[in-house]
Sequence to fold (223 residues):
Amino acid sequence: MLEIASSVKIDELVLLGDYADFHSVSRHVKNPTLPSLLTEEVESVNEGLDQLDKLWPGIRKVYLEGNHEFRLEAFLLNHAPALFGVTEPKHLFRVPQRPGWIYQRFDRRQAYRILGSALFARHRPLATNPKTGLNRAMVSYCYGDIHKIEEARAVGLDYRSHVAFCPGWLGDEMKVAFDYMAAPPQWDLGFAFVSVDSSKNFHHEIISIKNNRAIFNGKEFRA
Fold:
């Protein structure tokens, strides 16, 4: 993803949530091969954000908090309520100190308008399938959370086209899924580009990653 995105000019970068896993404070069975200390994961996340800052200095970057980042808040509420509010992910990841970053909390009102267009981004979909979610949203939106590539479209009586889509996820399912899943997850590796024209119409393209390979602009990229 980083190599492909570096091959074109981008004006905005949006993380759709769960960039951090917060495995150490998860309610799931812990994988002993993964970092057991929260400080280790925070350090790893900051290294990733530092890399994004280095690759794309000066552009707007948006961090949409996901339910995995929210695990820290839930853990404090359940196990250490006296410490609630002492710290939170955006401060652990130094977001306020990172120029050009916007951080949105994980809640039902979460919505970010991409490049001023009619496309909104949030972490969690509004339904278990994209068609129903699109009907509930009543606007075009993209989301993360489900780790699958999916899309639904609808055209209203005003002949305006609306879309709901998830571009997949970027991670290692062998490290996070089999901790608590009985079968291989139905997940898709991928990400998306969104272009906005002079009339603020958006156009999106989902880039699927298969067997450590992806095709973009007719060129094959390999991990």
